[in-house]
Amino acid sequence: MARLSNLYLFFYNSVQAFGWAIALFRIIIDLVSTKSVNGAYASAGDLICLLQTLGFIEVIHGAVGIVPSGFLFPLMQWGGRTHFLLAIVGRLLEVQESPAVLITFVAWCCMEIIRYPFYALSCLGNCPSFITYLRYTAFIVIYPIGVLGEMWIMYQSLPVITEKNLYADYFSALPFSYYTFVKAVLICYPFLWLQLYLYLFKQRRSKLRPRIEKPKKEK
Prior knowledge:
By secondary structure, this protein is mainly α. The protein has 10 helices and no strands.
């Protein structure tokens, strides 16, 4: 059973790694060919929406114990990204050409083409040390860039949400509007993000420190 689960995880993570690499390639090709920062969603938005939606599988992995990450932090990250991507960017043409979409998508792609190969190769028990180092180091710079891009887009979307009275039917039974909900999300976002960021630093210490301290002990 352990071998079957490793094969399954290797396949899933390989597919995700390939998909995010294709998304980044599309964005770069569009950027070079059009010399415009406004085409990121048009070039790779549909693919990124698909990959991000499929990412809910990782929450299930943690919930059923196939991977040791648990489900809370994967759920928080997946939920934040998916709301931003499907409920806001995917619905509002007015923000799809924002440079912040390019910044966010590039940050996501760069992080995922490191993260998923690390997971895939770890399933084989043969992950190169430099990939492990990148997995637990690149997020220090890339993660804040992606989150700032998400917050920028959400802030830009607020006037459009008001103008279109977005999701009014869904929020009609609630004492607040979707506009108010997004404003609350923007306020909470830095605090929720900080929890995830500190969690990643905790992972970094546990994964990299043994590699660094082992030679010292041998001396």
